[in-house]
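Entry 14. Ran structure prediction on the chain below.
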Amino acid sequence: MEAIKKIVVIGPESTGKSTLCEKLAAHYNTLWVPEYAREYLEKHGTDYTYEDLLAIAKGQIELEERTSSKLKVESSKFKVQNPIRNSQPSTINHQQSTSLFIDTDMYVMKVWAEYVFNNCHNWILNRIAERKYDLYLLCDVDLPWVEDKLREYPDEGIRKKLFYFYKELMSTQSTPWHIISGTYKQRLQQAIDVINENFTQKIAQK
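Output, structure tokens:
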């Protein structure tokens, strides 16, 4: 079974996380995991509670696991159909790895819970400790805030404060991470460059 490289896109709201995940998945011909919170809040309303955040966190993990399993199946089928894959252009050395792009993980849930409720469920903290990823892309707040019924913080000061929280979290963990900034087009190219550099080097060293 091919190793799946899990690449997480995180950051404050309205920083292009979903757009970046979708475009990266298209570029590398793979799958991506949407943010489960949007589905949950559209169904249950935006007047959420502390317990709702735990439900959202569990739903995010479940969605990630389902998508990961689907990708493994599709990758296995692709391997059988294409035993020699040197001609596949839109992959991270697709002979040895498959990428999964994830919009939001438990770090996002931690920042959300602590900022709104000044507390975080142990279940979320435990998932942070036990789950492993290969790369984080932290989206900067230099994109204009886009109004959305599910978004809460248009204030530039709050956006910068939340970004600082994410940056501090990234600085204290061991997974490689990079800040992604600029226009949507620039962000996509930055992300592609970072991904190719990280994973082609690791593969070459094997």
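The CA atoms of residues 1 and 121 lie 34 Å apart. Will compare against last week's run tomorrow.
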